[in-house]
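Good morning,

Attaching, inline, the backbone tokens for the sequence recovery test we're adding to the shared suite. The designed sequence is right after.
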């Protein structure tokens, strides 16, 4: 349950600086009716966040603290699905801190000597980013429900099968496979690139199995620790009043991210399920080649075989070009309604560019791209110039974009790098504007530039 006005958490072992921040932030907090929570102990702050992760909007933490420094705290609390934004404060910026920061989900990095106005500006932007993210997540889910084929009164999981959009033979084959997989209770590994919608397909398997009133538990492997995993596993085995176990389907999102210790915990649990014939089914997804990870000894072979009894491969969007037009129509309708804009038509050039683009981020990238177009254009008919720059220039400049040959595969990382380079070129190397153009935070673009060695 989200709080109406999520709090701002400030962590610093220096009482005087805490008081300074409290006074500095007072106007901002008062204007936004936000509560300030202060802590001198990072361990205490960690407990507060873990107990109520949805209760905070902005987390401001010092870097140098006893017992646990700011980066260690962030490593413990950062997760892909979080909404709160993190600002890291440090006495003086140095290369080590900056490089650590670039590999983490931090909204901003500030020196503690920064002027009050600079701190207020950063907190205000982080809060705005938080609200924007929260609002869009909520509205998008509402409208996805509204525009799903079939009854809008259905639950999210009930709608999952209907929300798989496409007319291509390959997607029809995937849907046929889902029907077959749903008749079994064997574990299933869902394989596909990032952005292909693996969780949606997992929910479709659950829906087709007819277990709507039973448990579907999503487990984000990347944000997991031993205590949390054990708690989830025990929750999946809760009994009903008549002392019978209710059936649970556990879905491990990006299972390759499980640590070795957690892999062992999962193996032990699966052994218990098998031995006692407990009503639990395991679905897991991965965007990595688990067989390769097994060879590299970073994923347990016995766990791989236990998860890969059945396999469902989700094709990337470039393999199902026929589905781009129905997906385009679906998301145009959805985001036009969402942003209260008139429904857009598009010309042949617009469609041709969408169908010829490589879509390294798959359906998620297509969805986000259409959302951006709807936000920034007032044209009734969408044209080529309404498409984001990095997609427009795909295959135009031999230095930045090269049309892949039929038998050539371009890594997603390369496509991402090209998008960032083009956004920076378009904005005259203004990183803040480029981040806005790409729909990512300022911290993310710095992190990606470091990752891809973009000057």
């Amino acid at each position: 349950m989200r709080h109406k006005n999520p709090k701002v958490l400030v962590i610093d072992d220096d009482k005087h600086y805490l008081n300074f921040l409290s006074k500095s932030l007072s106007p901002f907090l008062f204007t936004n009716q936000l509560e300030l929570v202060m802590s001198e102990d990072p361990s205490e702050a960690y407990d507060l966040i873990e107990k109520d992760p949805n209760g905070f909007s902005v987390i401001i933490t010092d870097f140098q603290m006893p017992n646990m420094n700011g980066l260690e705290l962030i490593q413990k609390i950062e997760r892909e699905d979080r909404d709160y934004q993190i600002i890291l404060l440090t006495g003086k910026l140095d290369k080590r801190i900056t490089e650590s920061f670039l590999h983490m989900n931090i909204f901003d990095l500030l020196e503690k000597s920064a002027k009050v106005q600079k701190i207020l500006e950063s907190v205000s932007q982080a809060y705005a980013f938080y609200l924007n993210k929260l609002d869009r997540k909520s509205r998008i889910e509402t409208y996805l429900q509204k525009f799903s084929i079939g009854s809008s009164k259905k639950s999210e999981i009930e709608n999952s099968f209907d929300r798989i959009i496409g007319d291509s033979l390959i997607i029809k084959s995937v849907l046929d496979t889902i029907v077959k997989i749903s008749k079994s209770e064997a574990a299933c590994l869902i394989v596909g690139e990032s952005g292909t919608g693996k969780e949606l397909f997992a929910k479709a398997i659950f829906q087709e199995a007819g277990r709507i009133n039973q448990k579907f538990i999503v487990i984000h492997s990347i944000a997991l620790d031993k205590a949390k995993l054990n708690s989830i596993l025990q929750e999946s085995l809760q009994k009903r009043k008549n002392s019978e176990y209710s059936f649970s389907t556990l879905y491990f999102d990006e299972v390759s991210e499980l640590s070795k210790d957690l892999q062992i915990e999962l193996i032990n649990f699966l052994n218990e399920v098998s031995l006692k014939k407990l009503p639990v089914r395991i679905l897991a997804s991965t965007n990595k080649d688990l067989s390769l990870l097994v060879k590299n000894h970073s994923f347990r072979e016995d766990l791989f075989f236990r998860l890969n009894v059945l396999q469902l491969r989700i094709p990337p969007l470039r393999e199902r070009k026929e589905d781009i037009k129905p997906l385009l129509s679906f998301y145009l309708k959805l985001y036009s309604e969402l942003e209260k804009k008139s429904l857009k038509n598009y010309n042949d050039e617009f469609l041709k560019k969408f169908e010829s683009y490589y879509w390294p981020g798959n359906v998620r990238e297509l969805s986000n791209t259409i959302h951006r177009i709807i936000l920034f254009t007032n044209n009734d008919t969408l044209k080529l110039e309404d498409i984001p720059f990095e997609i427009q220039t795909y295959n135009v400049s031999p230095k930045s974009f090269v049309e892949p040959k039929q038998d050539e595969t371009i890594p997603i990382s390369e496509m991402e790098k090209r998008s960032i380079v083009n956004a920076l070129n378009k904005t005259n190397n203004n990183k803040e504007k480029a981040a806005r153009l790409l729909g990512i935070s300022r911290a993310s673009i710095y992190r990606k530039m470091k990752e891809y060695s973009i000057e």
